[in-house]
Amino acid sequence: MNHLKIGWAGLGNMGTPMVTNLVKAGFKVKVYNRSTEKAVALQEKLGVEVARCPKHLVEDVDVIITMLTDDAALKEVYEGPEGILSITLPTDMLAIDMSTVSPDTTRQLAALCEAEGIWYMDAPVSGSVKPAEEGQLVIMAGGRPEDFERAKPIFNALGKASYLLGENGAGNYAKLAINTFLGITLQGLSEAVIFAKNNGVSPEQLLPLINDGPLASVVSRSKSQSIINHDFTPSFPLSLLAKDIRLAKAQGMDTPAGNALSDTLQEALAKGLGASDMIAIYQYLEQQYVV
Question: What GO molecular function annotation could you give as one example from this UniProt entry (predicted)?
Answer without folding.
Answer: oxidoreductase activity
